[in-house]
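Supplementary Note 3. Input sequence used for the single-chain structure prediction.
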Amino acid sequence: MDKLLIATTNPGKLGEITKYLSDLPIELVGLKEVRITEQVEETGKTFEENAILKAKFYSQKSGLPTIADDGGLEIDALGGEPGIKSHRWIGGNHEDSDEDLIAYTIKRMRGLRPSKRGAQLRAVLALALPNGKIFTAEAATRGMIPLAPGIHRTPGFPYRSLLFLPEVGKFYDHSELTEAENNRYNHRKQALDKLTPVIKKYVC
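The predicted structure, written as discrete structure tokens, is reproduced below.
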């Protein structure tokens, strides 16, 4: 069976991508299974550049077709911040903790009225093939940042405790949403759905 490497060190992302690609007739493997421990310095200026950078690096290291992603929170009133700095927003040179990011976001949004609290979580996925071909897909889930975060936490996904979906009256957290709502709103799933025909053509 053909293999597809899912290149992420985030267990939550690994679980989601594996779940949403589980119907494909391929073997999905993570970095641990191919014994790659190196990490890529994310020097790109955009989500797309970083996703491609990671996918290419791990595909070259493993010799396997590889999926990598990059994404984060984009707040309208802050000009798209934190954007590519979503996990290094406070300290700059090191990854911030989930709770620190949640508290800092609430602080930065203080005083803004509801109409100015629009935001989205965006993900860009890149598929790199061993022959050098690159394919990308992206999707976003829009909502708003309320005055206080939700009570649920998903490790590695701090901003899901902050993005409220007015249409369903729930935070964008898998423990709050039904299975149908998760399938409808999950931005990573939407991007994977766009990329699946390419995976079927070139990997399966």
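The chain has one domain: 3-202. Residues 3-202 form a domain with the Maf protein fold (CATH 3.90.950.10).
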